[in-house]
Amino acid sequence: MKTLFKELLFPLIAVLAAFVVGGILILLVGDNPIVAYRLLLGSALSWPDGIGQTLFNATPLIFTGLAVLVGFRCGLFNIGAEGQLYVAAFATAWVGITFASLPAVFLVPMCCLAAVLAGAVWAGIPGVLKARFGSHEVINTIMLNFIGIALVSYLTQYHYKAPGDPILQSVPIGWGAHIARLGKFIPGLPERIPLNLAFLLALFCCFLVYVFLWRTKWGYEIRSTGSNPAAAEYGGISIKKQIILAMAVSGALAGMVGINEVMGYRYRYYDGFSDNYGFTGIAVALLGRNHPVGVILAALLFAVLQHGGIYVDGFSEHVTKDIVQVLQGIIILFVAAESFFKYMSGKLRIKNPGKV
Amino acid sequence: MLELRNISKRFGAVQANDNVSIVVKPGTIHAIVGENGAGKSTAMRIAYGFYTPDSGEIYVDGQVHEIKSPHDAIAVGIGMVHQHFMLVEPMTVAENIVLGSEPGSAFALDLKAAATEIRKLSEEFKLAVNPHAIVEHLSVGQQQRVELLKALYRHARLLILDEPTAVLTPLEVEEFFSILRRMREQGKTVIIITHKLSEVLAISDEVTVMRDGKVVGGVQTKDTNATELARMMVGREVLLRVEKPEPKIGEAQITIKNLTVTSRDGSKPLNDISFEVRRGEIVGIAGVEGNGQTELMEALAGLIEPSKLSGQMDFAGTDLIRKDARSRRELGIAHIPEDRHRRGLLLDFSLAENSILGVHYRKPIASGPGEIFLDDGAIQDRVNDIIKNFDVRPPNPVLPAKALSGGNQQKLIIGREFHVHPKLLLVSQPTRGVDIGAIEFIHRKLVELRDGGCAVLLISAELEEVTSLADRLLIIHEGKIAGEVDPKVATLEEIGLLMTRGH
Q1: Statement: residue A339 has pLDDT above 70
Q2: Model-level ipTM above the cut of 0.95
């Protein structure tokens, strides 16, 4: 309990500090921070639209947060979740279009598998490059972001777009690839809200990632490699295998964004759908202290900000939804500065007891 | 010269110094001994102004001084040389020495005068240091002398040396001691912090023994001996000699033939080595550090890429050359690495998680379908077993390994490696940075393992350790075996010559 509190303390301080600094900025541009924050939080937490939409927004962030987390635990920085989720979303749609006539029993698992595999392969490439040649995963994942995003954009434009469609999107996927929206099961939640089964899948993945990393031998090997590669090697663990495995798992998790987007929301591939989910996932993982439970909490927070931002934009005089970007930025800054604060507090602790 | 009177210092829950009083007479070499964590370094850091004491006074030349920073300490003539050198490696000796008190005006650095001064000091104390040499090109022993010069250049009359011999080879230690004696002749006062009793007896005039933050005794060196000092340090009788029965030697467990390690730059840190280790014997490897010992152990443990290896390693009929670390472990090879922080431990992981490294993937630790899941019960059994049999303290499996003292970390590693009942144990520097009490324990365990029929290959920088533990002693020099001696009859001079000259 005490350690849990300790773990949560710093992220909480970061969030509170961000709100304080953000409040000052709101004051400076001439609005009342309390009104703005009430708009922000009130809209995101209203039932059913606010909460439904917020949970929907949180879904891709949970996936990408987990993806970045798995990389981090192996000592890898996967900043290619963005490219991975695009490639995976397209692959999901491709299967849903190509096998459109299949019944849901087959098509749903096939599409899910496509999302997971495409993500795993796209992240696996930099994994293999690192293991085989030692080239840095940060460079390669960034590069593959550009390649992946351009590739699926090209395929959509020239091969999978409905003729005459002015929007850059694919033809619809088959009915058998649709997954249910949660409005179907929850009274009072209208079905127009895109919150769907992928949200439950995301929560389940948090559980799976926890079990995988902390309860299986594979997770032990990945974490050992991340914690001290020389010791892992000494313990008979192949570091190369762990790098490839961790990248593939990371990419698979990022790829599941495609399930939420294609199978649960738009039922087609829509180019440019991602609101920087892959990059926000880095912040989610950091704020969530690289723990699955933390990732859920951090993803929810970021989702609240995103959704509430729209309302702030519409209903306040001066503040725009950019305030959300500012808040996110400050939170990240504070979280990233953690080691600095720890260092400072450590210094103070050594100096103080000198005088009694 | 220096007197600490009733110094107390507390860090959080730890009383690092409890009413410590030490009198250091001018013109003497004064040793402060004690186990790790006894408070010797804390006391000296207080004298040097790194820490301010919670209570107590510091007297220099009979006058009370408030030493709040190293600056104050230097001003009253106290200098300190740390265990880890504080030198800027790409810069010259002179530049390093003047750093912090650069001579000349604000715009021009007058190194010439400094160099002359340094040369004069170097000659006075026979340090043989060239002021224009680049520090990173110097040997560790020479770098240490630069540290001494740094203190002397600032007119230190009292030098505090923290574990100065930990980084030196036996010959360098001898040289270093003659420098210290010369300093004493010139009227300097020296405080030497150490836990090596032989050195205390060899160099010091007076000894202060510390334990658990308190001074437990002060004696004239000529009136004491190692056994008495050890008893004062540990607080009980300690066996300094390794007691071991005659070895019952069996067949060869590993036969190494023409083993060569070629690095990427073409050099051969290990060059055509052949020897064997038989069941029931401890083979010791002595040598100056950096003569291929690390490579030998890593090559045997499977931690060097097979493409860099040539030769044969016959392990009771199996050639190991192409086998990876995991399959070697499965064959019955255990390894206690020389650097426990780099290789041996996952410092952020708990004791429990550390206790399964190397066996985490197989029964009984891994269980369930496909042996995928870690079995908590089995892990607990294992870690508790190790904690109990190897007296790991504090005995709390959920603590991270970094929370343990060096000795306890080492006991955890040794416990883990012994737990698999190895056929061949590779062990490097088993007692580096480990308390006397734990050293005795570790030595006993190694002998027990040998008597159980295990083949043991031991590498240690402590000559005393290899000569007292080993049944046969090989000397390694520049990647080759320079000779084999019987540790029972060989003299230290004989071994020392093989170590440095190679013949």
Answers
A1: no
A2: no
Q: State whether A234 and B337 contact (CB < 8 Å).
A: yes
By the CB < 8 Å criterion, does B13 face chain A? no
**Is the CB of A217 less than 8 angstroms away from the CB of B374?**
yes
pLDDT exceeds 90 at position A156: yes
pLDDT at B451: 95
pTM for this structure? 0.81
Phi and psi dihedrals of A274, rounded to 5?
A: -80, 130
Residue A252 or B240, more confident: A252
| Interchain CB distance below 8 Å, A233 and B346 | no
Instruction: Give the pLDDT confidence of B270-287 residue by residue, as tens digits.
Output: 999 999 999 999 999 998
The yes-or-no verdict on residue B61 having pLDDT over 60 is yes
SS (H, E, C) A110-176: HHHHHHHHHHHHHHHHHHHHHHHHCCCHHHHHHHHHHHHHHHHHHHHHHHHECCCCCCCEECCCCHH
Chain B stretch 189-218, residues whose beta carbon is closer than 8 A to a beta carbon of chain A: none
CATH number assigned to the domain with residue range B2-234, chosen from the 4 options 3.40.50.300, 3.90.650.10, 3.30.70.1050, 3.40.228.10:
3.40.50.300
User: Which of B298, B346, B350, B365 is the best mutation test for A, with the most CBs of A within 10 A?
Assistant: B346
Task: Report strand pairing: B270-278 vs B14-24.
Answer: unpaired
Long-range residue pairs from B10-15, CB within 8 A, at least 24 positions apart, any chain: B10/A353, B10/B54, B11/A350, B11/A353, B12/A349, B12/A353, B14/B213, B15/B213
CA-based Rg of chain A, rounded to a whole angstrom? 22
Higher pLDDT, B1 or B329: B329
Go through the domains of chain A in sequence order and give each one's CATH number.
39-341 (1.10.3470)
